[in-house]
From TrEMBL:
Swiss-Prot/TrEMBL catalytic activity: glycyl-tRNA(Ala) + H2O = tRNA(Ala) + glycine + H(+); a D-aminoacyl-tRNA + H2O = a tRNA + a D-alpha-amino acid + H(+)
SUPFAM superfamilies from the UniProt entry: DTD-like
Similarity remark: Belongs to the DTD family.
Major subcellular location class: cytoplasm
UniProt domain comment: A Gly-cisPro motif from one monomer fits into the active site of the other monomer to allow specific chiral rejection of L-amino acids.
Superkingdom of origin organism: Bacteria
GO CC terms of this entry: cytoplasm
EC number(s) on file: 3.1.1.96, 3.1.1.-
Motif (Gly-cisPro motif, important for rejection of L-amino acids): 137-138
Name assigned to this protein: D-aminoacyl-tRNA deacylase
Lineage, opening ranks: Bacteria, Pseudomonadati, Pseudomonadota, Gammaproteobacteria, Alteromonadales
Cellular compartment(s): Cytoplasm
Functional description taken from the UniProt entry: An aminoacyl-tRNA editing enzyme that deacylates mischarged D-aminoacyl-tRNAs. Also deacylates mischarged glycyl-tRNA(Ala), protecting cells against glycine mischarging by AlaRS. Acts via tRNA-based rather than protein-based catalysis; rejects L-amino acids rather than detecting D-amino acids in the active site. By recycling D-aminoacyl-tRNA to D-amino acids and free tRNA molecules, this enzyme counteracts the toxicity associated with the formation of D-aminoacyl-tRNA entities in vivo and helps enforce protein L-homochirality.
Length: 145
């Protein structure tokens, strides 16, 4: 599982010109599910996302998590993060999990983050989405499990 975390002032995702998910300050998570991922992978990633210290404390140091700041999380499926780009000029998506597995684990990730008391919004799995965000910092981290 790969998750690209971006600290945002706000973010939203639209499908067919309608907003399907929207947050204020928090984290935009672009996530790719890979073949080896399981429910255990999802649980570990959800815990890491909710506890990852990427927000500034009163001294300006990144010591606070989204849970500690009361921020929100927008989870958006992005299978292209699973691409193998090592050879040639066309990405290979052979590492990605099957769509039915990916959708289940993607939704479980959002649920697991929400179960930790964090407000979570999502995109729409498999849809052509338009993601808007105001990156705060910018602060961006790639998590790989």
């Amino acid at each position: 599982m790969k998750a690209l975390l971006q600290r945002v002032s706000h973010a939203s995702v639209c499908v067919d010109n309608s907003i399907v998910g929207e947050i204020g300050p928090g984290i935009l998570v672009l996530v790719a599910i890979e073949q080896a991922d399981t429910e255990k992978t999802v649980q570990r990633m959800a815990e890491k996302i909710s506890k990852y210290r990427m927000f500034s404390d009163t001294d300006g140091k990144m010591n606070l998590s989204v849970a500690q700041t009361g921020g929100e999380v927008l989870v958006v499926s992005q299978f292209t993060l699973a691409a193998d780009t090592n050879k040639g000029l066309r990405p290979s998506f052979s590492r990605g999990a099957a769509p039915s597995v990916s959708e289940t684990l993607y939704l479980q990730l959002a649920e697991n983050i929400a179960s930790q008391g964090i407000n979570v919004a999502t995109g729409r799995f498999g849809a052509d989405m338009k993601v808007s965000l105001l990156n705060d910092g910018p602060v961006t981290f790639m998590l790989d499990m």
